[in-house]
Specification:
Arc Repressor Mutant, subunit A, mainly alpha, elongated, 3-stranded parallel sheet
């Protein structure tokens, strides 16, 4: 088996393209085949080196590798011209100066569903001859056979008047030369397939097996777009998702091994992935489900591995103690720093939280009682802090939240933190008391 992933470097690698790359990679690696990476960079204005690197960067982050060096379609122009000359010499193609208006006039005379045919000329763009009889059948591993009657197909333009070839011609020649046996891509390419098959037939080349993947929709049933959340691989990385979780989730977008299994490690995906279990129905990309899955993956990492990844993500060092108390409360790497940053950078300044928790309803008095208990705690480990604060709850006869939240706002500046006992203990007695004192002084100023 020889497959290819052929992105156009006109921007970041989006989720749909990443799924296509993954499916091709799983097929190649699971079968002992090869994956060709072909960069379709013929749009020179948008195909910048930066955009090419974005695609390489996304694939590397997903840990999707390829065989051999990347192929740049723009480098293959001489080969494309050679194949074009071959078709012209064999009378499988011809030149024509026909315009869009000519096509419109032809269909007005012969019927809207009649494929356009032009008269050969000595100059103009190059059109591929489509037979009037018969049909082209696309054998699709997912959708089954699709039949396209030739009488309805226009003679497609395969090259401009200056000799530069168009997409469907270049793709067919590139797939032929690369020995591609399976073309796995989005179903939005289905309409291109009969044109590419006609090129291959004219060149006397074998037909690969096609597999057109279902489109991706958002949870609202509409075509996936930016409004549904992270749209590109880089955005998923920056949002703190793990590559192994993203691979697992993307594999499930249109494919499933059975009705019960959700989590697959990469070796299992390579072993079990097959085109005959890919659905024809649109797949739903739900970032909330990805977030849930990512949380499961995070919790299965060793503390050392998670710490390493968080330090890489945040650019900080010495995070192990904070990781130990926060790991069960985060579902992405990005969520870690907003939760624990106060431990390193000081309290946030959430004025609304301060006024609601400390500045009203006896909050300052309860915080003062907690401060006294913490100062007198025999040990300042988690157990010692918990005993001190629960003692205040019992003595004042209030709910635990009435004591714990003022302490949380005092040390974190907001109402969100890891466990209060663990957070206070990790700060240490001196720092925790200093932050509480600052809040009490602030509260006194507002009295």
């Amino acid at each position: 088996m020889r497959v290819r992933f052929a992105p156009s470097p006109t921007g970041a690698l989006h989720v749909g393209g990443a799924r296509t790359a993954l499916f091709n990679w799983l097929l190649a690696r699971g079968s002992g085949g090869e994956l060709v990476l072909r960069v379709e960079d013929t749009d020179r204005r948008r195909s910048t080196p930066e955009n090419v690197e974005q695609i390489f960067d996304a694939l590397r982050w997903l840990e999707i590798d390829w065989d051999g060096e990347p192929v740049f379609q723009s480098d293959r122009a001489p080969r494309h011209r050679e194949a074009l000359d071959q078709l012209l010499e064999a009378d499988h193609a011809y030149r024509s100066t026909a315009t869009a208006d000519d096509v419109k006039a032809f269909k007005a005379t012969h019927g809207a569903d009649r494929g356009f045919r032009a008269e050969p000329e000595s100059e103009g763009a190059v059109r591929l001859r489509v037979p009037d009889e018969g049909e082209t059948v696309v054998h699709d591993a997912i959708r089954g056979d699709s039949l396209f009657r030739h009488v309805h197909l226009d003679d497609p333009v395969i090259a401009r008047a200056d000799g530069s070839v168009l997409y469907n011609f270049a793709v067919a020649v590139d797939d032929l030369d690369a020995g591609v046996t399976h073309v796995v891509r989005g179903e939005d390419h289905l309409s291109n397939t009969p044109k590419q098959l006609l090129v291959l037939e004219a060149l006397g080349a074998p037909q690969p097996l096609y597999a057109h993947l279902p489109l991706l929709h958002g949870p609202d049933g509409k075509k996936l777009s930016k409004r549904h959340g992270a749209a590109s691989v880089q955005e998923l990385r920056d949002a703190g998702y793990l590559p192994e979780a993203v691979r697992n989730y993307l594999a499930l977008l249109g494919w499933g091994y059975d009705d019960a299994t959700t989590f697959f490690d990469t070796d299992e995906l390579k072993e079990r992935f097959a085109l005959d279990r890919v659905s024809r129905n649109p797949a739903v990309f739900d970032e909330q489900k990805l977030r849930w899955m990512n949380g499961r993956y995070l919790r299965e990492l060793s503390e050392e591995d998670l710490t390493r990844r968080l330090e890489e993500h945040t650019g900080r060092e010495g995070l192990a103690p904070a990781v130990a108390i926060a790991r069960d409360k985060i579902q992405t790497l990005y969520e870690f720093w907003p939760l624990v940053g106060f431990l390193f950078d000081g309290p946030a300044d959430d004025q609304a939280a301060f006024e609601r928790v400390i500045g009203a309803d006896g909050g300052r008095q309860r915080l003062a009682a907690a401060r006294e208990a913490l100062e007198g705690a025999e040990a300042f480990d988690v157990s010692g802090v918990e005993a001190a604060l629960r003692g205040v709850v019992e003595r004042l006869g209030v709910k635990p939240k009435a004591v714990f939240q003022p302490v949380r706002v005092a040390i974190a500046g907001t109402t969100i933190s890891p466990g209060i006992f663990e957070s206070v203990s990790l700060l240490g007695r001196d720092e925790a008391l200093a932050r509480i004192d600052a809040s009490l002084a602030r509260g006194a100023e507002s009295v």
